């Protein structure tokens, strides 16, 4: 590939990538490792121009101009000190996504218990997609099954009757169906797998077996029919070899075929959605046959978080858990970053609008440390598990908040307890919004909804992103209605659209969304 000079540095020609924009993340003269006051300058460019992330030495860049579609001219005498060339492209072969930004949040069925976050606490009026987590898989047969039938379909909320006639769905499934009726722009997907089932229990181990794939696809789509899902999400962490990667493609194809066949039986022939939770680590994404997967997918939910955490005790360095760029001043603080997987996916031909940038609603704790890139010895107590705090409780009392805008990272630090917590602050998220826009990504994704502040709190990250991407009236968000007609559901209330059959045979229609209560 041809290279072009840029004031002493070179960047590859990106004619094949058709890059989306140009980024210049510039370190200001006030920046230092101990005082992270980096000031980025962000200039968007046309879709036929190159993207570049460059680091600048102690001088601040005066100005920049774009001289051609495949290289960059810097109008300054500043000496470049390394940096990376980024080609964030429009993609080559990938089908373009629907128009409008997405706001996608995962919701765990366990959230209703100790966390006491119920479906009605989720800002479904703001979100375009809620991904309900997780369904399990029978390892030997491929049958997709519910992981918690009480949470999913049995729990009675205050407005649920015990006298309904027939076989009815309750629990989170009914609650989200009622929310779908109220907020027609919110799509409800079922996620299958997740870390515990996919990684620890290895439920995808038999994916090379065609019968296993067929059973998986049929039973997954049966859950979609029964429980009123608008689509399916596969969270496989992670294929371990090329044979499994090939099986992944066949699995997605089988699911897509089953969903299309079901769609053709419905009067409106809706398009059911298929997505994956996609890895951000090179050892995992380089195994995937990305373009073959992409032909069956509506979106990629990039897991651009968990870059550093308690598991780094062996290396011993506290790091940033959801940074966009790698740090050149403090490389031990960024073992992973989001730019590299984005470059990889887009270089393979994925349309940027199909990728949702993952953002955490929690923070990773590091104890007995002096900060990012420094040694740590243990982790903090956490909100629900050691080392992990919900975003809504951060920063902890006594902690000071810091940010490094050159890499898009933020954290808190308490000098008394020597605890660092890496998490996204509203200030950093506001810049990530601009990153999504400038690179024409599909939108934002969060793990998981239970960690955010209430939507009317000015510090709510979901509300902040939706306002930033969608505008004051939300008009720039994706506008696609959900599906309400599920005539083959085994649940009578879903089949009837929540026209409840009372024990005496009378019929009523549910119009009020229930109020959340403790489990």
CATH superfamily of one domain: Glycosidases
Helix count equals 11
Instruction: Please state roughly what percent of the residues sit in beta strands, choosing from under 5%, 5-15%, 15-25%, 25-35%, 35-45% or over 45%.
Output: 15-25%
Across the major sheet, the strand order is 7-8-10-11-12-13-14-20
CATH topology of one domain: TIM Barrel
Q: What is the β-strand count?
A: 22
What is the arithmetic mean of pLDDT? 83
How large, in whole angstroms, is the Cα Rg?
Answer: 24 Å
Which class of one domain in CATH terms?
A: Alpha Beta
CATH-derived architecture of one domain: Alpha-Beta Barrel
Low-confidence stretches: 1-92, 501-519
Q: How many strands, what sense, and barrel or not for the largest sheet?
A: 8 strands, parallel, barrel
Helix percent band: 10-25%
The CA-CA distance between the termini, in Å, is: 59 Å
Find the structural class using helix and strand composition: alpha/beta
What overall geometry do the principal axes of the alpha carbons give? globular
Provide the fold topology.
Blueprint: E1 3-6, E2 9-12, E3 51-53, E4 64-65, E5 73-74, E6 84-86, E7 102-108, E8 129-137, E9 144-145, H1 149-154, H2 171-182, E10 187-193, H3 194-200, H4 210-227, E11 231-235, H5 242-263, E12 273-278, H6 282-285, H7 290-294, E13 299-302, H8 339-347, E14 355-360, E15 362-366, E16 388-390, E17 400-404, E18 409-414, E19 419-422, H9 426-438, E20 443-447, H10 461-470, H11 492-495, E21 499-501, E22 507-509
Parallel strand pairs: 7-8, 7-20, 8-10, 10-11, 11-12, 12-13, 13-14, 14-20
Antiparallel strand pairs: 1-2, 3-6, 4-5, 8-9, 15-16, 15-19, 17-18, 18-19, 21-22
Helix pairs in contact: 4-5, 9-10
Main location: secreted
Biased composition (Low complexity): 506-519
Subcellular location: Secreted
């Amino acid at each position: 590939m041809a290279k072009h000079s840029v004031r002493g540095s070179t960047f590859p020609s990106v004619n094949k990538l058709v890059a989306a924009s140009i980024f210049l993340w510039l370190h200001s003269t006030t920046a230092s490792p101990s005082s992270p006051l980096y000031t980025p300058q962000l200039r968007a460019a046309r879709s036929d121009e190159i993207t570049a992330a460059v680091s600048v030495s102690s001088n601040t860049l005066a100005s920049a101009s774009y001289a051609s579609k495949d290289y960059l001219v810097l109008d300054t005498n500043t000496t470049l000190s390394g940096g990376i060339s980024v080609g964030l492209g429009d993609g080559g072969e990938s089908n373009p996504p629907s128009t409008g930004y997405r706001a996608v949040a995962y919701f765990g069925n366990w959230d209703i218990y100790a966390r006491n976050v119920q479906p009605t606490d989720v800002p479904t009026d703001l979100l375009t997609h809620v991904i309900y987590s997780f369904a399990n898989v029978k390892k030997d047969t491929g049958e997709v099954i519910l992981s918690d039938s009480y949470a999913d379909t049995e729990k009675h909320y205050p407005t649920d009757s015990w006298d309904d006639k027939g076989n009815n769905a309750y629990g989170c499934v009914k609650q989200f169906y009622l929310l779908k009726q109220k907020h027609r722009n919110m799509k409800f997907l079922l996620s299958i797998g997740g870390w515990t089932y996919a990684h620890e229990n290895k439920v995808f181990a038999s994916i090379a077996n065609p019968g296993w794939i067929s059973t998986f696809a049929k039973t997954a789509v049966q859950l979609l029919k029964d429980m009123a899902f608008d689509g399916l999400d596969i969270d496989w962490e992670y294929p371990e070899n090329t044979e499994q990667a090939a099986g992944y493609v066949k699995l997605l194809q089988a699911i897509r075929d089953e969903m299309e066949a079901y769609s053709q039986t419905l009067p409106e022939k809706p398009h059911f959605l298929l997505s994956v939770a996609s890895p951000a680590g090179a050892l995992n994404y380089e195994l995937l046959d990305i373009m073959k997967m992409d032909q069956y997918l509506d979106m990629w939910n990039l897991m651009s978080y968990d870059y550093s955490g308690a598991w780094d005790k062996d290396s011993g360095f506290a790091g940033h858990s959801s940074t966009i760029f790698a740090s050149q001043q403090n490389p031990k603080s960024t073992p992973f970053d989001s730019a590299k997987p984005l470059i990889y996916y887009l270089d393979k031909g994925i349309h940027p609008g199909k990728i949702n940038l993952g953002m955490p609603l929690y923070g990773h704790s590091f104890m007995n440390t002096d900060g990012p890139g420094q040694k740590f010895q243990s982790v903090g107590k956490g909100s629900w598990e050691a080392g992990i705090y919900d975003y809504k409780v951060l920063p902890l009392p006594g902690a000071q908040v810091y940010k490094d805008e050159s890499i898009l990272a933020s954290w808190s630090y308490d000098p008394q307890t020597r605890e660092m917590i890496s998490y996204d602050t509203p200030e950093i998220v506001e810049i990530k919004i601009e990153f999504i826009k400038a690179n024409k990504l599909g939108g934002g994704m969060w793990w998981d909804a239970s960690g955010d502040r209430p939507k009317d709190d000015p510090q709510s990250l979901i509300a902040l992103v939706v306002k930033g991407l969608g505008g004051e009236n939300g008009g720039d968000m994706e506008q696609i209605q959900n599906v309400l007609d599920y005539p083959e559901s085994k649940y009578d209330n879903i089949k009837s659209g929540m026209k409840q059959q009372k024990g005496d045979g009378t019929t009523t229609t549910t119009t009020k969304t229930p109020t959340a209560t403790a489990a």
